[in-house]
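Friendly challenge for the regulars: who can give me the structure tokens for this chain first? No prize, just bragging rights.
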Amino acid sequence: MQVKDITALIEKIAPLSYQENYDNAGLIIGNHEMKVTGILLCLDSTERVVDEAIEMDCNLIIAHHPIVFKGIKKLNGTNYVERTIIKAIRHNIAIYAMHTNLDNVLKNGVNTKIAEKLELSHLKIIQPKIDTICKLVVYTPKHKIEDIKNALFENGAGQLGNYSECSFESTGTGSFKPGEQAKPHVGNIGIREEIEEVKIEVLVPNYLLNKVLNGVKAVHPYEEMAYDIVPITNQNQTIGAGIYGELAKPLESNQFLQFVKEKMNLPLIRHTAYDREIRTVAICGGSGSFLIQNIKNIKADAYITADIKYHEFFDVENQYMLCDIGHYESEIYTLEIFYKEIKEKFPTFAVIFCKENTNPIQYFK
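First reply, four minutes later:
Bragging rights claimed.
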């Protein structure tokens, strides 16, 4: 098995195109053709993690956080980032990161994993993304409708929330006149032909557009397939920042805090006061202060995130309970997502959870 086999598998969950523009997800060290001996899963790639990979004979590290965020001009080993890179290269270990692209997906994403721990239901995106989907319009003769639709759906078109194989059809008349060099499926050279055609419209994720087009062209009967690509600004209800959902039953504030602490295995929770029952819970793993105002709009009773600054707690204005559970603590269960996907596809392959606790923050209890 090669690195590209693993990365292709997990990128089906969270394509790299869904990462934020400041991010650096993907294969950071190594090459896609490298044969994999074992996989070590971690939150952060550090020197100690690379040591563990060497010890466990794992030459692919899959992390949530990229070891490289900014450009590096020198590799002198003057900081932990440079030393980690040098050690990984020296021992021929590849490092891959799936970061904000995994944060931004509803299904099998970072926030959904937290929601799973808290047993939340009816999950929705807090801040849906736009410009992630387009509309593809394909024109086909009537006798090829099923072949065209199957090619569209098999390659990822027609997905709308929890529904698949979604499309719209309308019938009209197409006309064309084959040129001297043409090899028409129907009609004759130099004579305008008119034929009853069907227009099929589907939504396609932008990152799958080329794959969908190639799949349809392979079964389309015309020498020149007629199609339109229409950019749309619809919000993508399955891609975006943060999620929110419902607890199985309302909890008093202290009950809720104890529930979260136990379910997430937390040493402590920094939080604001809140004197009402909690039912609707919002979540953003990692640094989520940018969503503080959005939480008011969805009328959540609590917001679980990390890295909240002192004055940002004031911004809540007692409209909900703001809970800072810690950056490491909010994202450590990301490893379970990687493990589940890889082991389902490659059940006999060595996939190991990192034993090294990479949390740089310690707590005095």
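The mean pLDDT is 94. DSSP finds twelve helices and 15 strands in the chain. Your move, everyone else.
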